[in-house]
Amino acid sequence: MPAVRGDEPFALVRRWLDEAASAGGRNTNAMALATVGEDGRPAVRMVLLKEISETHGYVVFYTNYRSRKARELERHPWAAAALYWPGLGRQLRLEGRVVRSPEDESDAYFATRPYLSQLNAWVSAQSEPLADGDDLERRAATKAAELGGTATEAPTAGVPRPPFWGGYRLWCDRVELWIEGAGRFHERTEYTRDLDLAADRIDAGPWRSRRLQP
Ligand SMILES: Cc1cc2nc3c(=O)[nH]c(=O)nc-3n(C[C@H](O)[C@H](O)[C@H](O)COP(=O)(O)O)c2cc1C
User: Fold this and answer.
1) Which end of the chain is more exposed for a tag (fewer CB within 10 A), N or C?
2) Closest ligand 1 atom to the C-alpha of 46?
3) Ligand 1 mean position, distance from CA 47 (Å)
4) Cβ(36) – ligand 1 distance below 6 Å
5) Which residues have C-beta within 8 Å of that of residue 181, sequence separation ≥ 6?
6) Is 154's C-beta closer than 6 angstroms to any atom of ligand 1?
7) Which atom of ligand 1 has the smallest separation from the CA of 71?
8) Enzyme catalytic residues
9) Hey, which bits of 65-204 come out as E strands?
10) What would the pLDDT profile of 177-198 be if each residue is shown by its tens digit?
């Protein structure tokens, strides 16, 4: 069936994110991100949805490429995410294929981060055990000196992005917009499309939509 304009969910996804941000509160772009482990078991944790492509229908989050979630994604590159805004009575669900962001895009985003976030991205081996007596602050001070800065002052040349840290794009093939309704007659609209996975790119088919029972 050919896509009709009303079938495209991403303009609404953008609007919902903007309206959640305007409504105020902390981390209105936080999403629970589920991945699948080697043993087939799901794991979930919060990450921040940082960018959205309405044109391609993907969202972007940033993380450590050696973290548990990244290891799981490299092995099984599919993920599901959910955002919930209680004040607005809205839930957004996103599912699809995950690919690393281009390096220049991760560089550009990393450059916008506060100095301590940049420094600590270098220092934390995210998801690894914290050894007894391991001193993150001491390692941060050592790294800061190595980069030409201090614990509080950024080096004039800035901080380069660690090669093990960057973005992931979640290319959605399923999106659900959920609106709280009276008497639990919630309004659910599900959007799906096919993703054609080539070695170096993803081609997305047209969106289809249908209503779901609450
Ligand atoms: C509100 C919130 C936002 C977070 N955002 C991120 C994020 O954008 N990237 C990230 O790597 N971790 C983020 N975290 C930390 C993760 O939830 C998690 O602890 C970390 O990524 C390690 O997960 P893993 O061991 O499953 O890889 C956030 C946590 C919270 C509570």
Assistant:
1) N
2) 17
3) 5
4) no
5) 187, 214
6) no
7) 27
8) 184
9) 78-85, 90-100, 165-179, 187-192, 195-197, 202-204
10) 999 999 999 999 999 999 999 9
Atom of ligand 1 nearest to the CA of 67: 27
Whose alpha carbon is nearest atom 11 of ligand 1?
63
CA 128 to chain centre: 21
Closest CA to 74 of 38, 42, 39, 48: 38
Q: Which residues have a Cβ under 8 Å from the Cβ of 163 and sit 6 or more positions away? A: none
Q: Is 55 helix (H, G, I), strand (E, B) or coil?
A: coil
169 alpha carbon to ligand 1 midpoint, in Å?
16
How do the domains of the chain map onto residue ranges? 5-122+163-212
Assess whether the C-beta atom of 192 lies below 6 angstroms from ligand 1.
no
pTM beyond 0.85, yes or no: yes
Is residue 7 very low, low, confident or very high in pLDDT (cuts 50, 70, 90)?
confident
Nearest to 71 by CA among 44, 36, 106, 103: 36
* Per-residue pLDDT tens digits for 35-49: 999 999 999 999 999
**How far apart (Å, rounded) are the C-alpha atoms in residues 179 and 188?**
6
Q: Whose CA is nearest to atom 22 of ligand 1?
A: 127
Residue 98 CB coordination number (10 Å): 21
The closest residue, in CA terms, to atom 3 on ligand 1 is 47
127 lines ligand 1 (CB under 6 A): yes
Distance of CA 66 to the CA centre of its chain: 15
Strand locations in 54-194 (E): 58-64, 78-85, 90-100, 165-179, 187-192
Written as six digits, the tokens of 150 are 């201090």
Is the domain defined by 5-122+163-212 classed in CATH 3.30.450.40? no
